[in-house]
Amino acid sequence: MATFWCSKAEQAGQAGEACQADQEEEQTCAICFESRSFIKLPCACKMHYCSTCWDRCLANSANVRGQPSCPSCRQSFTVDYNEATGGLIFSMASESATRAGDWRRNLSNKLRKVQIQCLRDHGTSMSRTSPPAGQQAHPCSGQLASSSDLLPRCVCGAHMELSCRRGRILRMLDDTDPDWRTRGGGTEGRLRRLLPNALITCDLCEGIAMPPSAVWTCSNGPHTVLHPEGNDICEQCFERHAGFGNPQSKLGCTSGCYCQKGMPSPTLPASDVVDGCEFSF
């Protein structure tokens, strides 16, 4: 048996290092293990969560179980929006309110006004922006549409992207089932089955985004509780509140569309292709 001896100073140093390691572990988010500022939990849990991980956990539990809940103690909450401070309010959920989905409708109604203001602010900002030399003049066409610093902002803080119907379905599949491409059955076959019956509802007017228009969707997808009932805006609402539209969207697809990300273009009859975007609106 090997025996090791260390001095009291070394023992104290080791104890101090262990204590510091414990403190650092306590000061990191329990999910991402990053040292960030933590949110004040509305429940009795002593865990530490950064705002990003907490938000994603609430959104995931709301999507899976129908109600936001703490990832550690599973306490359910209702979520409200404080229009004066621009922050969220968490309350212990009553079973009846949670089951009825009242919190979703209430939160969605309040955030709708905030999103409309985001579009108005974007329109004002774009009206003051001149395109760089060599770029197209329209503030939301061609290469400009794929530049994240010029894209409109969602109420959650992420940017919104213009997408055709095919791109929107691809994003939905990637958001809800990241491994779907690796399973058998063929990706194109699954898209063909989904597209004919897919309905995309605008979260502002609650109408159906009708072909051949594209749709604006948030890059955050379903991963935030700030999307209680969805994250899509039709082109008509975008143009109404931002003050301009995208001429290319009438063709169903634009440069930078999600349909062009990570999917090989299938060989299709010419009648199935619109402006380079297969299965578009």
Description:
- This protein has a domain at 111-127 and 139-278.
- The chain is built from 7 helices and 7 strands; from the N terminus they run H-H-E-E-H-H-E-H-H-E-E-H-E-E.
- It has helices at 8-26, 51-65, 95-100, 102-127, 165-176, 187-194, 235-242; strands at 77-82, 87-92, 160-163, 215-218, 232-234, 273-274, 277-278.
- The longest helix is centred in the middle third of the chain and has 26 residues, at 102-127.
Radius of gyration: 24 Å
Based on helices, strands and strand pairing, what is the structural class? alpha+beta
The main sheet orders its strands as 3-4-5
Percent helix range = 25-40%
Compute the separation of the termini in Å: 75 Å
Number of strand segments = 7
Shape: globular
Q: Biggest β-sheet: count, sense, barrel?
A: 3 strands, antiparallel
Strand content: 5-15%
> Secondary-structure element order, as H and E?
HHEEHHEHHEEHEE
- DSSP helical segment count: 7
Low-confidence stretches: 1-8, 14-25, 133-146, 265-276
Q: What is the typical, i.e. mean, pLDDT?
A: 75
